[in-house]
Amino acid sequence: MTQDTADALHTLAHEHLPAEIAARWIGLLRPGLALANATATDAEAEAATDADAQPGPRSVVGRLGGLPELPEDQEWPVWEGHGPLSFIASVDCALLPSDALDIALPKDGTLAFFYFDGQPDDGRAMVHPRDPDSWAGARVLYVPAGVPVTERAAPEGLRPYRHVPLTTWVETTAPYPWHPVVYGEFEPMPDDHPLWGEDFQEAMEDHPGCLHQIGGHASPDQDEVETEVAHGVLGGPPWNDPRIPEEALRWVLLAQFGSDDDAGMMWGDLGSLYWLIRPQDLAERRFDRAMFTWQCG
Predict the structure, then answer these.
(1) What's the domain range around 119?
(2) pTM, whole model, 2 decimals?
(3) CA 238, CA 176: separation in Å to the nearest integer?
(4) How many CA atoms lie within 13 A of 141 on its CB side?
(5) Per the record, which residues fall in region Disordered (predicted)?
(6) Number of domains present in the structure of the chain
(7) What CATH number is attached to the domain comprising 188?
(8) DSSP letter at 50?
């Protein structure tokens, strides 16, 4: 984990929580990989996210936008009846410090993320976990190392996003306050529980999250994304169904990509795209089973 980020979260916890609660909350922190524009200045990168751990020249591990490189036999992803998906981002797994993560990311190969952004139908169709018919509107493709690829032109009528090279570093990430993992650790949580304290909540709101990220705890724009996905895969039961938090704990963040001026990406009102996956599916490279959701403020 990036020491500066870990130290900041440890200090935050010890300043605003009783020692025993702080230690247990710190135990819920997880490593993630922050992604940011590799060509940004240190000041620009730090303004976008907590990037002061990576000063100076930055290695490129992936990109936002541009045109994807795909195998010859791989068709461009399409949501049947609606149109082609837009290429959002790709990362070269061999260049990622994945040993720092607590998820089984591939050691090599490329992950490419596609999403139906509404260009073909002027935004009429939406992709959401509560609508199984829309799940084909978001895809993750895994291209194993050594497979020949070529740059693929975008389908007619689809405007590619601007190409932004991405660099990465390890970040310490904290769970959303209402995440099931928090309730699982601290239940019961009455209204006067220290985690609901105003000072702690405000300090967490002020702590910078990652705009783009691989692994770790997601940075939701609304509520915990794992619960949204769990609700969808369970067929949309009432929100108080006890199966929902149980199912939410079976999903981990694969990647998130926020609205980005450099790439010309805007998801609603400064929102973010999220791909989640079950650990077993990740270990088996079943990226076709990844689930998608998106949020905006």
Answers:
(1) 3-295
(2) 0.93
(3) 22
(4) 25
(5) 46-67
(6) 1
(7) 2.30.320.10
(8) S
